[in-house]
Write a structure and sequence with these properties.
The protein has 19 helices and no strands. It has 378 residues and is mainly α. InterPro entries: MTERF (IPR003690), MTERF_sf (IPR038538).
Length: 378
Amino acid sequence: MAPRNFLSMRSNFLFGSRCWMIRFSAEILLKTVSFRLFRVKCGNADRESLENEELLNNLLTMGVDIDMAKKRQPGVFNRTGTKEQDLKMFLLSKGASKEVIASIISRYPRAITRTPESLSKRWDLWRRIMTSDLEIINILQRSPESFFRSNNNLNLENNIKFLYSFGLTHKCLCRLLTNAPRTFSNSLDLNKQMIEFLQEVCLSLGHNKPGDFVRKIILKNPFILIQSTKRVKTNIEFLQSTFNLNGEKLLVLLSGPGAKILDLSNDYVNRNYTNIKEKLFFLGCTKEEIHKFILRYPDVIFLGEKKFNDKIDCLMEEKFSISQIIENPRILDSSINTLKNRIKELVNAGYNFSTSNIALLSWSQKRYNAKLKKLNIE
């Protein structure tokens, strides 16, 4: 019995020892692998840190706002082979100041990833539209994304050719590039799709010169080509159904003062229209008066609920009648402070709003000052 117990103890000991040795060996192996992985990871992190440090130093030396740049496009700071020095030299050669260059990179850091060859080609394409390097610099200063967002120069070239072929003048393309430069970053197909859609709208309303119609809309609203056809279609349907317009009247509205409404969000248009209607109903206006007011001054749709209500309340508090306001809608262009100041100045100068035109509340500052000076002399 004793030998059997001894053998059993020896067997258990050997088995336990073997398990312990296997476990110990496995732990050593895992620690070794983990250590190697840690070293590789640390090595990569060190390299990234060095690369980032070099980039950061370059940008700091250039006067770039690093915090702003990181918030806007943080991924740029993990890239290698950036071209910040090349970009700096290129823009300096075109007449940009160091401060302007720093501002461009701060607001659109991805600019430092573009190659000198791509920049040069894109600049030459822009010069087909703009008359000077300074004009391009001014656009970049205002909207760096417009130039650096895409490096697809072939698409840009095709868009320029297409828009010229459609009959847009050099002046019109300048306006597009100045106000809505993203038009030229659109795919060629997207621009064609919008123009074809607007031509179809024109034909469906009984007009036989769709090209003229589309060109008028683009002149009035340079942002139209960067909107979706769905949004524009919904807004056209809203205008037609809400104001019960026939084809001819709708064409005049769309190619004139109503063109700007087409790129607003449909919810925004509906919400503002509902607010205007309810506010003016409350003040005693009829549906016909409200519609006439909006069609005479479609820009009122741009006024948010609070801004519109506050301006109307301000004028009513100053004893203006609602009929005076809807007959002179452009006075709503002025800020509340401007309205209050001008009303006070004119009253002090002896101007009688109950018997005189209130349109001067929306006049340009130069024209208004001349009138006020004349009143004070009288």
